[in-house]
Each structure stands twice: as C-alpha cells, then as structure tokens.
Amino acid sequence: MLVKNQSPLSDELRTELIRKSVHILIAAVPSMTAFLGTALTLGILATGIVLYTTAEALRQRGCSVPIITHITRVSSRSREANHFVLGPVTLGIGAMLAIMLYPHPAASIAVYALAFGDSAASVAGKFLGRLTIPLTGGKTLAGSLACTVVVALTVAIMLQGQVLIALALGITAALLEALPTRDADNLLLPVGVGLAATLIL
C-alpha cells in the first residue's frame, strides 16, 4: 500500500459531497420502477440524460441553463472544469442498464450499489483515504471498505439478513468500483453487481 497525503476538509471534499448528494438521487429508480413501470422509468431517465446533455453542451459554449448549469459547476471536479462532465450521463445509463437487464431484486441491488456504494467509496476515499491501492488509479482502501460495508448492509436489509450473499455482493461492488475506469464505473458497477446478484439469487 502507498501512503496518500491527507488534508483537512477542503474544496475538493466539499465538491465530492455535493457531487455524491446528486449521485444518490439515482436510488429513487427502483421505487419509480415499482410505481410507474419499467418503460416509463426508462423514458424519464432517457429524457433526463437528453436534457442534461443539452445543458452541458450549451455550457461548453458559454451559455447557462438555470439550475442544471449551477449544479454542474459546483459538483465538478477540478479535472472536469473545462470539459464535458460525463458523470450524470453514465449514471443515468447505468441505472437504465440495470433495470433493462436484470429482474427484481437484482436490478434494485445493482442501482443501490451504484447510488450508495459508489458514493460511500468516493467520500470515504477523500476524507479517510490515506492508503491507496496499487494499480487502481488512486482508489483507496478506506473507499473500498466503505463500498463493501454499505452495499453489504443494503443487500442484507433487502434480503432480510442473508449475510453471506450480502457480503459477497458488497465485495463484488468494491472490486468493480476499485477498477481505474473513472466515470465508466457508473456503467460497470451496476452491470457487474446486477449480474452477480442474478447468478447468486
């Protein structure tokens, strides 16, 4: 393991907290699917992706779209400052893939892993991440442990205490999240966890 320099609460951490607060909203997708149906939920997600993509394209040209542009600016990482922020697009597509590819409860587990597991990994990594994992592009041990615990707890609650299955899916989520894929983890995480959940269940 390598030692990672850690600073007090910083602009970077505040940005990550804002970013992941938005990220967690994708957890509403399983409830939307239950109440509205898969087709309508997919339509809402697709519409959101198109609206965001349009707003972000306009931002690149110096125009501002109320609310969307402001949220994008305050939640963008420094490396994204002058680039198209792809995260919300891959987030929406990841959720769409989960509910298209997998039945319940695997689809819900996949979306919750994306919403909660990825968010926990990012925040814990920024705040507590002194030890980085080699060959992961800077991912931290603290982040991976947080992802494992949060996903395992979520699955254990969903499956009414099936601890071994919950732990297996928590570890699966952490391994996928630790891959150095940047925003592609929004696709890889739900697809991989959903597949594992489908096979196990």
TrEMBL record:
<keyword id="KW-0808">Transferase</keyword>
<keyword id="KW-0548">Nucleotidyltransferase</keyword>
<keyword id="KW-0812">Transmembrane</keyword>
<dbReference type="GO" id="GO:0004143">
    <property type="term" value="F:ATP-dependent diacylglycerol kinase activity"/>
</dbReference>
<feature type="transmembrane region" description="Helical">
    <location>
        <begin position="24"/>
        <end position="52"/>
    </location>
</feature>
<feature type="transmembrane region" description="Helical">
    <location>
        <begin position="109"/>
        <end position="128"/>
    </location>
</feature>
<keyword id="KW-1133">Transmembrane helix</keyword>
<protein>
    <submittedName>
        <fullName>Phosphatidate cytidylyltransferase</fullName>
    </submittedName>
</protein>
<dbReference type="GO" id="GO:0016779">
    <property type="term" value="F:nucleotidyltransferase activity"/>
</dbReference>
<feature type="transmembrane region" description="Helical">
    <location>
        <begin position="83"/>
        <end position="103"/>
    </location>
</feature>
<keyword id="KW-0472">Membrane</keyword>
<dbReference type="InterPro" id="IPR037997">
    <property type="entry name" value="Dgk1-like"/>
</dbReference>
